[in-house]
Amino acid sequence: MSAERFEKKETIDLRKKYIGPSCKIFFSHDPIKIVGAKGQYMYDEKGQHYLDCINNVAHVGHCHPDVVKAGAQQMELLNTNSRFLHDNLVLYAQRLQATLPDKLAVCYFVNSGSEANDLALRLARQYTGHKDIITLENAYHGHVSSLIDISPYKFHQLSDTEQNQFVHVASSPDVYRGKHRADHPDPASAYADEVKDIINKAHKKGGKIAAFIAESLQSCGGQVIPPVGYFQQVAQHVREAGGVFIADEVQVGFGRVGSHFWAFQLQGEDFVPDIVTMGKPIGNGHPMSCVVTTKEVAEAFMSSGMEYFNTFGGNPVSCAIGLAVLDVIEKEDLQGNALRVGQYLTSLLEKQKEKHLLIGDIRGRGLFVGVELVRDRLKLTPATAEAQEVIYRLKEQHILLSADGPHRNVLKFKPPMCFTTEDAELVVEKIDVILTELEEALDLKLNNTLAVENESNKRNWRATQQRKPSRVSSTNQTKQTPQDIKPPVNKHKNRHRWHISRVKGP
Questions:
Q1: 87-97 and 316-331 helices cross at what angle (nearest 10)?
Q2: Which of 6, 249, 354, 355 is the most buried (most CB within 10 A)?
Q3: Burial per residue of 295-325, b for 16 or more beta-carbon CB atoms within 10 angstroms, e otherwise
């Protein structure tokens, strides 16, 4: 356990004095001071442990001994930049490429997800000779200037900032709250057609599309899962316009979705991006990231005549750590664990949806799961205040969860990959208690709205039976149903109730 240098209040005061005021912290009115972490747990200065449900950076678990050892041993030998020959760089590039489709064959190592996405834009613009970028509503791709321009999640907060003329925003492919929902006969095509319309409008104004960029699963946008076939059709429209497709895997790569190593693979084997960016989990907390692209794009980037050099990208220590992360994922079957535990977590949450009116939607893949809270399931009124109440009440129970999305009403699960079924049970049990108390305080009665909702569900069901087949076929995937998943013995039977005041709606 790390030694505490200051009392908590002094740490807060020093932070206010020396750290930029726009650098926010979790639970601002009563922040947690963390002095240590291991596996899926974090520890405060008093030794109290917190179950971490949000730290997708500590991908294989906080302070994993194999990762720590690999970094320390290499640091004792050598750390230098990649202009010197070193085996770690090529070994890691080889191992990383083996997880990707053959077409994605060239690596550029950098230091953060923001750096990776910034470089991806440079690659796309150099390869195509075009400038325009299509991004998605509520997207977040990083904090540098070029990425704020393509991150509506950020720039929509700036009322006096004019949108970059080379940036076009397409609707988020959200089948729960978006323009085209689950009862639409072909939401993938409908959302993709909107991208095609954006391309046509840009062309009429003299613009040329360099790239379409999307998180393979939207995180800050509210844990949005694009309908299968959407990326294939978008890629076709963009490539016909002379652009490339960039898949941002910074939040969701490295086996988190369980069934696949990369989240873009959920769309099917027939979809391969032109550029993939990765970060966060790649180094388990060590600052490293990567851009992987095709030989054609890489050669075009070289033809500009400008050398690309990154002082720390691909250094021997970073690559040793990256190799150790890949080893741990394989050795501990963490991708398989994400699939099994994620399915179990989702099945538990689905049961809570049957019980609690505040739960509007459960969505996710593997250990990337969202719970959207709503005041009204028909109107989809966001339960923003209630979501904040849930995460603060969980904090009191020593569980760390966050809420995000455009209305900040989506509870986000993206824990370290060593998360267990027992952890899932504990969190869901606590959420059950909190939602029960919230609904009692708000006087939300399930039986008062069931008749109306059942009629709506019947209409939706009839509509889905008449769906047209998607224009793009996808690979069949064997999925377990909640009935297939046998729960372990529940080790967390003691429930604690507390007084709760009425929460005002947004």
A1: 40
A2: 249
A3: eebbebbeeeeeeeebebbbbbbbbbbbbbb
